[in-house]
Write a structure and sequence with these properties.
Layout (H helix, E strand, L loop, with lengths): L1 E5 L6 H12 L2 E4 H11 L2 H12 L5 H15 L4 E4 L5 H13 L6 E6 L2 H9 L1 E3 L6 E3 L26 H15 L1 H7 L4 E5 L4 H15 L2
Parallel strand pairs: 1-3, 1-4, 2-3, 4-7
Antiparallel strand pairs: 5-6
Bound molecules: adenosine-5'-diphosphate (ADP) (2 copies).
One adenosine-5'-diphosphate (ADP) binds next to helix 1, helix 6, strand 6 and helix 9.
């Protein structure tokens, strides 16, 4: 099963992707997590990317495509779920070339729809595990033990780009730079829209129902 998750920041892509990966045993590839891992290790990619992420802007395509190519080659074979990539049309085109070279195809592009006010409420109370990248919400999806990741036990932190001002800027970036990808994939008949506004379990149920129908 090869899927792409699209949707504005805070739509629930990472949360739903992680659950699907456990259930279907496929690899989750999140460019956001890869970039944050590069930043915390202080790699050249991380140093460059930090300047953009900090301001809520997209990291340049060349850097993202270079970083993801290696990752894809290692993980594609057993099925994959892309979360946060592609985010621009040039990235989608680059992905198509890599997939063609390796004889893989995308089964579906799932677009999670969520309204703007909900996004701000979700992201300003998001807390993230520094070790595994899992995200929680102070009210809607709290960890079992306050402030600690259920899986790693690490102390959760608030991402610097999860403040109201940067979140609003990231939403604009999504509208202008990422949304055009939906049309790109509509031409390939791959797009399925999902209402992401329900409770976490309800959204997951919608996704699983859909996948049963479209992925053989
Ligand atoms: P994305 O990867 O799309 O940016 P996340 O999966 O990190 O989004 O979710 C953003 C925030 O919203 C997190 O705090 C998460 O716990 C919370 N969240 C995710 N799905 C839902 C939902 N259906 N209802 C309420 N909160 C949610
Ligand atoms: P979100 O919660 O907004 O979905 P992510 O963790 O996916 O957050 O991404 C965080 C930031 O990392 C983005 O705002 C952007 O600066 C950068 N980033 C992640 N993926 C990409 C990508 N595919 N192209 C460009 N920038 C990216």
């Amino acid at each position: 099963m090869n899927l792409i998750f699209l949707g504005p920041p805070g739509a629930g892509k990472g949360t739903q992707a992680q659950r699907l990966c456990w259930d279907y045993d496929v690899a989750q590839i999140s460019t956001g997590d890869l970039l944050r891992s590069n930043i915390s290790k202080g790699t050249p990619i991380g140093v460059e990317a930090d300047k953009y992420i900090h301001q809520g802007n997209l990291v340049p395509d060349e850097l993202i495509i270079g970083m993801i190519k290696d990752e894809l080659k290692y993980t594609l074979a057993g099925g994959f779920l892309l979360d946060g990539f592609p985010r621009t049309v040039p990235q989608a085109e680059a992905l198509d070339i890599v997939l063609k070279e390796m004889n893989f195809k995308i089964d579906a592009v799932l677009v999670l729809d969520v309204l703007s006010d909900e996004i701000v409420a979700r992201l300003t109370a998001r807390r993230t595990c520094p070790t595994c990248g899992k995200s929680y919400h102070l009210i809607f999806n709290p960890p079992a033990k306050e402030g600690l990741c259920d899986i790693e036990g690490s102390t959760l932190y608030q991402r610097k780009d999860d403040n109201e001002e940067t979140v609003k800027h990231r939403q604009e970036i999504y509208e202008n730079q990422t949304k055009p990808i939906i049309k790109y994939y509509e031409k390939q008949n791959l797009v399925h829209k999902i209402n992401g506004l329900g409770k976490l379990d309800d959204v997951y149920y919608l996704i699983k129902n859909l996948l049963q129908k479209i992925v053989k």
